[in-house]
Input
Amino acid sequence: MRLRQLTAGIGLVAAIALSGAPAQANEFEEQVATRIYEMADGLRLMEDAILVETVIETLEADETVRLNFTMNAGQDYTIIGACDSDCSDIDFELFDSLDFSVAEDFGTDGLPIIRVTPDFTEEFSLDVSMFDCTSGFCYYGVSVFRQNDI
Output
């Protein structure tokens, strides 16, 4: 069981490395990647789900970015996020292809989570909002997991 978690963890780190982040991650990117891994591990996503996508980028305080990805009908998804040590609050809001809000996490923390099972296969948009960043910009990360059907 522990070997499977370790292998999945290595896969997550590799996926994060290939997510478009610079070739050599800085300490803040590493903080975000570690927080995402720890959150995924704590939610048993490393054992029970498949990593679909990971993004690590930067946002300024009070800035929002929209990320788009496709989710399949009838499959369970978990979307998790984290931010670096200069950030203490990021929020998620998920919209369907008609731009209707379908899920949100507006908690006052830096570890948002959304769980959703779409009725239709379609492109969804995730708004990531940085509310509390004590530097000019903060790193954040988002990982999308699909429940393993096995």
User: Anything to note?
Assistant: Residues 17 and 121 are 28 Å apart (CA to CA). The helical segments are 2-17, 27-42, 45-48. The chain has one domain: 2-147.
